[in-house]
């Protein structure tokens, strides 16, 4: 890994009057709408990218609220039914004394989603003005957010597996709560927000500072 | 055309001369350090073969017994289809569809697309018709193919249940576990820009 900030000036496709394709690297004259090589849409516009990022991010945040309020799991044991929200499940784990598992669930289902929202918002804000965190720092942040986003879907899969597996009639049965839907939507929207963010914008800001 | 000799870094937009990168060496963007090309010898063959393996494992995972739960004489079996249909009752049906897509259908579609584009090139043929479009879709599907995330979810669920009941692991579980490894191997051998370059040069000949 390079830690030193590279200060040398590099000619970019935009400066050369070209537009690069994010999927295959092909360059085409500016104003071309479809990549001649892979037929992807060629679009490099700050407003279009950031509008999409904010729209998906807000959608993700909205979906995250019911994901926390409503029950994720409904457990019935010997006729007694209890409903667990995300946070409720964690508190129950703490009461049972399994601090390790409680921490992991708290980390994966609460901390990481919130950190993702903050990270994407930070990236979207920071392209408008030069940030303290250098480009390499932001690039690492962007890559981490892109990588980690899909792994949050684990919670939804756990609910599905528990529901399918724990069906012992009267003795014990688990059914999913409506929060599973909101959580899945929240994860999908956040993934779309991260995908809409064009990393080239971070470097465009640097070019503007230079000139 | 001069544009053929230049590529733009997908991450930072810096222009680079499109040189032939030696096998087993890595070309990184001088500005942001993103890996632009990392060709390996026989990578196309390997990816096509691994994709075929993954497809077979996926079919096995979807059809063999998956998990069984046993506690005090009571037992219950669950297949992968049961897991997908976990949300099927009531208003959560769309989530069942999404789960089916994410853990079985989209990974299968992605592997088919990879085989379709890369297998002809691996044996030195011209790309199949619409190969560029199909490969674009394979790349787009990548984040949404979550078979490997599902198996980690299984592991988490097993930790939660194992204290209360005995869980038996069926062949489908091991198929999914193998799929996790094959997926990682496939994804680490794919070099996007090399695939595009090969597609470009082969289709113009």
Automatic annotation (TrEMBL), chain B:
Keywords: Membrane, Plasmid, Transmembrane, Transmembrane helix
Membrane is among the record's keywords: yes
Domain of life the protein comes from: Bacteria
Regions crossing the membrane: 47-69, 144-165, 171-195
Stated name of the protein: Paraquat-inducible protein A
């Amino acid at each position: 890994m390079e830690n030193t900030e590279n200060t040398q000036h590099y000619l970019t496709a935009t400066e050369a009057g070209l537009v690069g394709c994010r999927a295959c690297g092909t360059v085409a004259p500016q104003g071309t709408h479809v990549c001649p090589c892979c037929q992807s849409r060629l679009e490099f516009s700050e407003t279009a990218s950031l509008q999409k990022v904010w729209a998906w991010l807000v959608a993700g945040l909205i979906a995250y609220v019911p994901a926390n309020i409503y029950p994720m799991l409904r457990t019935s044991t010997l006729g007694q039914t209890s409903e667990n929200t995300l946070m409720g499940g964690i508190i129950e784990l703490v009461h049972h004394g399994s601090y390790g598992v409680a921490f992991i669930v708290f980390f994966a289902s609460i901390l990481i989603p919130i950190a993702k929202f903050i990270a994407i918002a930070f990236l979207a804000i920071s392209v408008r003005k030069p940030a303290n965190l250098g480009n390499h720092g932001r690039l690492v942040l962007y890559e981490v957010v892109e990588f980690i986003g899909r792994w949050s879907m684990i919670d939804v899969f756990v609910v599905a597996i528990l529901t399918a597996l724990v069906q012992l009639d009267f003795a014990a049965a688990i059914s999913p709560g409506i929060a599973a839907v909101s959580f899945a939507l929240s994860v999908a929207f956040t993934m779309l927000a991260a995908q809409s963010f064009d990393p080239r914008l971070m470097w465009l800001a640097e070019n503007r500072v230079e000139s | 055309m001069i544009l053929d000799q230049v590529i733009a870094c997908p991450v930072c937009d810096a222009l680079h001369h499109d040189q032939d990168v030696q096998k087993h060496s890595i070309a990184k963007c001088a500005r942001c350090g993103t890996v632009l090309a990392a060709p390996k010898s026989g990578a196309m063959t390997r990816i096509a073969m691994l994709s075929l393996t993954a497809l077979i494992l996926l079919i096995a995972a979807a059809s063999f017994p998956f998990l069984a739960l046993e506690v005090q004489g009571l037992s219950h079996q669950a297949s992968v289809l049961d897991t997908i249909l976990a949300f099927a009752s009531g208003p959560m049906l769309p989530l069942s569809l999404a789960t089916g897509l994410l853990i079985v259908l989209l990974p299968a579609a992605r592997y088919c697309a990879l085989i379709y584009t890369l297998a002809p090139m691996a044996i030195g043929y011209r790309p199949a018709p619409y190969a560029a479009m199909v490969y674009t879709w394979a790349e787009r599907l990548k984040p949404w193919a979550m078979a490997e995330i599902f198996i980690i979810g299984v592991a988490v669920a097993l930790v939660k249940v194992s204290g209360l009941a005995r869980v038996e692991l069926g062949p489908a579980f091991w198929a999914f576990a193998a799929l996790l490894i094959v997926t990682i191997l496939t994804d680490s051998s794919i070099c996007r820009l090399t695939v595009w370059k090969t597609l470009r040069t082969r289709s113009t000949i």
